[in-house]
Design goal:
Blueprint lengths: L8 H8 L1 H22 L5 H8 L5 H36 L11 H14 L8 H23 L6 H25 L4 H9 L7 H20 L1 H8 L2 H6 L4 H23 L5 H13 L3 H33 L9 H23 L1
């Protein structure tokens, strides 16, 4: 018996209402956002509170308002983008393992950013050029998958196999670029691992309109995506042009992933696991589950960023280091891999 099942009937129905769950999740997002804002180094909790109330010294004000706040907002929106992109991909391809990380989208976006940096066309300090390069790479990766899958694009198993192959090829090309331009390794390692360190208002100003546009486009595709989840035959019988619907969904997923990667790099397992959690919490109606995936993705990335900052401070103290930074991407990969193994083990035991 679950905790909800112990609640009396009317209250239990209220707890199961999507609006109540969405409201509770919004409160959780606010909680992890506060934790992320207070978790950084350089300013005490009291100092952050004073700045938020309009006081504080100039140094504390700069750290809170020009460094921590944009970092927090970028983490929230990037997480929302990855959550929605993963759900769109898994629905369009009918594949529970079709996250951005294993369909060529994230590796392609990383390759685009790294190649542009290696050629001197972009850099971590020029977000606009990085966004363009990451988007081109992401679309190239998705296009390569689509070309290889061909007529089997609607087959979840075949698409998964081709996606892994494409991702491996793109990762290899990224390694080649780093060998050709080894001097750029320090500036691109954040894209390879994923980090929110050094995010400023310019990143936020570029990311949020992009995320809002493509997020709205994905939500408008909730109906076709719901049909695609049922299979091509059922979707065609309902009057949906499956090729066009799947193509439009993939464009949205690639655009959302590329925007997130251009801002925070390759955050492992966020786009793969968040959709499963969203479906478990909100159900199969994607009109509700897509916004839920956005909130869950924002919660996961922002909460992990707060945890990474706190762990960085603890490790720096324990190792007596002046400065030690744990990338948020390393933490999402570690935790995500652990959760994936637990889920796989439970499914194996159930069989």
């Amino acid at each position: 018996m679950t905790l909800i099942e112990t609640v009396p009937g009317p209250a239990r129905r209220a707890l199961r209402a999507p609006g109540v769950r969405m409201g509770g999740l919004a409160l959780l997002v606010a909680a992890v956002a506060c934790a992320d804002l207070f978790a950084g180094r350089g300013v005490t909790l009291e100092g952050v509170r004073e700045v938020l109330l309009g006081g504080g010294d100039p140094t504390a004000e700069h750290i809170v308002l020009q460094l921590r706040l944009p970092r927090l907002l970028v983490a929230l929106v990037a997480g929302a983008c990855l959550g929605v992109a993963g759900l769109v991909l898994q629905s369009a391809l009918r594949n529970p393992l079709a996250g951005p990380e294993v369909t060529g989208v994230t590796p392609g976006a990383v390759l685009g950013a790294v190649a542009a940096t290696g050629l001197g066309l972009a850099g971590w300090e020029s977000p606009t050029a990085v966004v363009v390069a990451a988007c081109l790479g992401g679309f190239a990766g998705a296009g390569l998958l689509w070309l290889l899958a061909g007529r089997e694009a609607g087959d979840p198993e075949q698409t998964a196999v081709y996606g892994v192959l494409v991702s491996a090829v793109l990762a290899g090309l990224t390694a080649v670029v780093l060998l050709v331009a080894p001097g750029e390794l320090g500036s691109v390692v954040q894209w390879l691992i994923g980090s929110t360190e050094g995010r400023v208002w310019q990143h936020w100003n570029l990311l949020w309109p992009w995320a809002a546009f493509w997020g709205a486009a994905a939500w408008l595709l909730a109906g076709p995506l719901t049909l695609l989840r049922c299979g091509d035959e059922q979707a065609s019988a309902a009057g949906l042009a499956t090729g066009r619907g799947r193509g439009a969904a993939l464009v949205c997923a690639v655009a959302l992933t590329a925007g997130a990667v251009s801002a925070v790099g390759a955050l492992g397992f966020v786009g793969l696991l968040v959709p499963h959690l969203a479906l478990a919490v909100f159900g199969a109606d994607l009109r509700i589950t897509l916004p839920g995936a956005a909130l869950l993705g924002a919660t996961v990335v922002c909460g992990t960023d707060a945890a990474a900052q706190l762990l960085s401070r603890l490790l720096a103290t324990a190792l007596e280091a002046d400065r030690l930074t744990l990338p948020v991407g390393a933490l999402t990969t570690f935790v995500g891999a652990g959760l994936l193994m637990v889920v796989a083990r439970r499914r194996a035991d159930e069989r």
